[in-house]
Design brief:
Elements: H1 4-14, E1 21-23, E2 50-53, E3 61-69, H2 81-104, E4 107-114, H3 121-138, H4 142-166, H5 183-188
Parallel strand pairs: 3-4
Antiparallel strand pairs: 1-2, 2-3
C-alpha cells in the first residue's frame, strides 16, 4: 500500500504533462543479454512501476521504480538517512538499471521515499523536473508547483502511515486523490 500510493500519485501528475504513461509496464523479455550485476531482474515477467515517454528526453522512455522504507527500523539505526537513500537507490539500480538501459534503451530513475516523507536525491530531481513541466504547461510559478508537489507526496506518505496504524474503516478500497481532470482546478488555486 505504501508503495502504490506515491506511484499512482506520480503517474497521475505525469498524466497532466505527458501523453504516453504506463503503470506497471512489463519489461522486454531477455534474449541472451548478460548483466554485470548478479541481482539484476532476469525474469520474463519483470515489471517496472511507471513508464513515461519523453520525461527526460524527447520520445525516449523513462522507467521509474518506487521503494518506500522505514528509516527507524532497528537495522537502520546506525546509518544516516542520506546514506540509506543512496544505498537503496544503488540496490534498485543494480536490479533494474542495466536491463532498462540495454533491453529497453531507456532511462531509469529509482524513486526512494522514507515512510516519514523524505525523498532520495534522484526522486527529488524527478519531482523538480515534473514541477517544471507542470508550471510551464499551466503557466504557474515553479516554486509554488514544486512546493505543492512535495507537500502532496509528504501527505500521501502520512495518509498511508495512518492507514497502516489504524486500518481501513471500509470493506472496499476506493480510488483516493484527484483525477487528472481536476489538476487544472487544483493548480488554479496556486496562481494566487
Amino acid at each position: 500500500m505504501r508503495h502504490d500510493g506515491p506511484k499512482n500519485l506520480f503517474a497521475k501528475w505525469c498524466g497532466g504533462c505527458f501523453r504516453d504513461i504506463g503503470l506497471e509496464p512489463g519489461l522486454e523479455p531477455l534474449s541472451g543479454e548478460v548483466f554485470e550485476s548478479k541481482s539484476a531482474k532476469k525474469e520474463d515477467e519483470a515489471r517496472s512501476d511507471v513508464r513515461v515517454r519523453g520525461y527526460w528526453g524527447n520520445y525516449r522512455n523513462a522507467f521509474f521504480e518506487f521503494r518506500v522504507f522505514y528509516p527507524h527500523a532497528h537495522s537502520y539505526k546506525s546509518t544516516k538517512p542520506q546514506a540509506l537513500y543512496k544505498q537503496i537507490a544503488r540496490t534498485r539500480r543494480r536490479e533494474y538499471g542495466e536491463r532498462v538501459s540495454q533491453c529497453e534503451d531507456a532511462d531509469f530513475t529509482p524513486m526512494i521515499l522514507s515512510s516519514s516523507g523524505g525523498m532520495g536525491a534522484e526522486m527529488s530531481m524527478a519531482i523538480k523536473h515534473l514541477a517544471k513541466k507542470v508550471s510551464e504547461k499551466q503557466n504557474l510559478a515553479y516554486s509554488r508547483v514544486a512546493g505543492y508537489l512535495r507537500a502532496m507526496f509528504s501527505f500521501e506518505m502520512m495518509r498511508l502511515a495512518l492507514i497502516c496504524l489504524r486500518g481501513s474503516r471500509s470493506r472496499f478500497t476506493t480510488c483516493v486523490g484527484n483525477d487528472v481532470s481536476d489538476t487544472a482546478a487544483i493548480l488554479s488555486g496556486l496562481r494566487m
